[in-house]
Amino acid sequence: MTGGQERTDGGFGTDHELAARLATEAGELLLGVRVEFADATAAERKDAGDKRAHDFLMAALSAERPDDAVLSEEATAEEHANTARLSAERVWIVDPLDGTREFSELGREDWAVHVALWQSGELVAGAVALPAQGVTLATPDVPPPPAGPAAPRIIVSRTRPPAIALAVREALNGTLVEMGSAGAKVAAVVQGVADAYVHGGGQYEWDSAAPVAVARAAGLFTSRLDGSVLRYNQADVLLPDLIVCRPELADAILAVTTAH
């Protein structure tokens, strides 16, 4: 990774360090929201978590990288439609709370905070915090996962496993691992809990930007289902499919996904 990783505006550290710190601090804030809203409804807990994490990240990035643009899942429709970011050199792509369903279910650990930086056409820094696990995975130094079993573990949504992932599982004689949150799924591949994440059910840039940055830093393969490059800071923020897997599985997985 190049570019933004060396920026040290205002003495706040490199972009890698900033992404890791903000993701971690937003996660700590969200753990506090869980405690505060323990007796509230799941919907109230979701809404409070989304808003507070978004407000925190927007204020922090405004203070520490005031010249950069930001694309957040929780921005208003008008902010999403603002095309100014398309001409910006640097754009932070954040998901303040990835996996709101899991966050709202007290005791679940498979939710995340995503903070990524796109610069001049590339993801150059990223962090995925898993607050309930006490873990933050951040560029530039992400250890590769340990060796996996002979039968690859394909990670899927616990509520809506896509047909393409089931086809990959069958073709590779693998097993399924169910989990929420795109960030938690990619983190599971990075950590060696699973071997591949194959998604075809619809996502947006903020769902995968930070996880993909972290996965690439760990030496994992990433692409669209058709094998094309994942592109960020586009006019249309829909980025509906992706593959994140151990590099040795990429050809076998692409043989399935490109045939469908």
Automatic annotation (TrEMBL):
GO biological process: 3'-phosphoadenosine 5'-phosphosulfate metabolic process; sulfate assimilation
Catalyzed reaction equations: adenosine 3',5'-bisphosphate + H2O = AMP + phosphate
Chain residues that bind Mg(2+): 73, 95, 97-98, 207
Membrane spanning residue stretches: none
Gene Ontology terms for molecular function: 3'(2'),5'-bisphosphate nucleotidase activity; metal ion binding
Reported cofactor(s): Mg(2+)
Domain of life (superkingdom): Bacteria
Keywords: Magnesium, Metal-binding
The protein's name in its UniProt record: 3'(2'),5-bisphosphonucleoside 3'(2')-phosphohydrolase
